């Protein structure tokens, strides 16, 4: 058994229970891409501050062409938007107003942007990109066979929408890890078992990758004011209450209020899942593809800036 952030060996007096369970079914997106979208679909349009979560599997020649962003944190772009976008654009897309987090589970992706930043993230690596006032970048498979990973979009508050873009990249070996009683955790953001991530999150966020061996359990504290979810990567687990039915891979679990998450692996195989939580912004969201702002007027201004290559898009290519 493993306990993180709580003094009781039995979990929590007020555990977070599963409030909603959604199976992310695979969808074919263009040539060679399969996406399982769990957040950002009709059943779960968003979970403040989270805008989108995709589990993706991409084989060449598919990829994420150049695309613009403004006002977000990102983890991997809207795959269907990107795949259609690249038909008439030279593999670039713009993001604005949020952050993205790209976490590679298998294979590698090469990314580059209109400022000349270029690199490759491989299995276990993370790219935490703050789009802020706007960035145009591309993401393409960097090897043969299937490239698999997760991409999360995290909204930015109105006061942070127009900050300068930046990257934080961690190779697998540099991601802090902790292990106890059959539970291993990679701390991409936040804290677990007293170990902290060096990643700075503009929107207060936790992002933890857990693997539980058979018969292991864990109790992870989550700030009570935060929204949180689980995404099961492989195996099956019992979440919230020990008497609950096990839930299988590719489900997203929206957690209700409480002190933290309790999880048990009662199966004979390893259980791997992502636990993410974030401080709600409680602000209006107006989204136009990869542009995420607070009002329609701001969206209109963003489109104008991008079209006329101004206010941060001076180096944009159309």
From TrEMBL:
Keywords: Iron, Metal-binding. GO terms for molecular function: metal ion binding. Pfam families: Pirin (PF02678), Pirin_C (PF05726). Residues 207-311 form the Pirin C-terminal domain. Signal peptide: none annotated. Fe cation binds at residues 67, 69, 137, 139. Its cofactor is Fe cation. Binds 1 Fe cation per subunit. Belongs to the pirin family. This is Pirin-like protein.
């Amino acid at each position: 058994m493993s306990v993180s952030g709580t003094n009781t060996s039995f979990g929590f007096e007020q555990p977070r229970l599963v409030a909603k369970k959604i199976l992310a079914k695979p969808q074919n997106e263009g040539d060679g891409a399969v996406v399982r979208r769990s957040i950002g679909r009709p059943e779960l349009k968003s979970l403040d501050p989270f805008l989108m979560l995709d589990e993706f599997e991409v084989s060449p020649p598919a990829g994420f062409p150049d695309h613009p962003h403004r006002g977000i944190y990102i983890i991997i772009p809207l795959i269907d938007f990107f795949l259609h976008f690249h038909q008439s654009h030279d593999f670039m897309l713009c993001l604005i107003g949020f952050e993205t987090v790209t976490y590679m589970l298998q294979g590698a992706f090469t990314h580059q942007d209109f400022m000349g930043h270029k690199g490759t993230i491989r299995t276990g690596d993370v790219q935490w990109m703050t789009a802020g006032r706007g960035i145009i970048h591309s993401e393409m498979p960097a090897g043969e066979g299937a490239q698999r990973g997760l991409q999360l979009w995290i909204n930015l508050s109105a006061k942070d929408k127009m900050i300068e873009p930046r990257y934080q990249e961690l190779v697998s070996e540099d991601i802090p890890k902790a292990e106890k009683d059959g539970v291993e955790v990679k701390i991409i953001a936040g804290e677990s078992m007293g170990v902290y991530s060096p990643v700075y999150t503009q929107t207060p966020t936790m992002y933890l990758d857990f693997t539980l061996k058979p018969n292991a359990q864990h109790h992870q504290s989550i700030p009570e004011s935060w929204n949180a979810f689980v995404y099961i990567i492989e195996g099956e687990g019992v979440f919230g209450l020990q008497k609950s039915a096990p839930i299988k891979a590719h489900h997203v679990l929206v957690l209700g209020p409480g002190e933290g998450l309790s999880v048990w692996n009662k199966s004979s195989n390893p259980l791997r899942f992502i636990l993410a939580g974030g401080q709600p912004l409680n602000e209006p969201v107006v989204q136009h593809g990869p542009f995420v702002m607070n009002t329609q007027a701001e969206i209109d201004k963003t489109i104008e800036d991008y079209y006329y290559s101004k206010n941060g898009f001076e180096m944009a290519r159309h």
